[in-house]
Amino acid sequence: MTMVSSRSSDLGPASRPVAIPKDFATSVDTKASGVIRLPNRIRWSGPDFTFDMDVATDRRRVYELVLVDGTEEDVRRYVRFDELIAVWDDIFLPSYVRRTWHEWFVEHNIDVANC
Fold first, then answer.
1. For residue 100, which of 78, 76, 68 has the smallest C-alpha distance?
2. Is 52 part of any domain?
């Protein structure tokens, strides 16, 4: 058996696809509101937890979780486009997620400072 001395770019979190709906900027889907509980596929570790979508800090945390582990349907359901633009500099995202979203913003001529 041969061991590789460096990490493969084909494995690990950065190899996972980032879900960005093609119509995200124009989507008119009904967004989640009030107190929510994210599906286990998004918030898969830690104790059961609820988020209040009417509270800015909770909403930002939901955005962070959904942008990393959510599906396109999850992004449509939980993330408001205008709000995402407004809080972009305030949310923590892994570099591969931020880079993928940055590419989407550029492709759609959306200016987000310090992307």
1. 68
2. yes
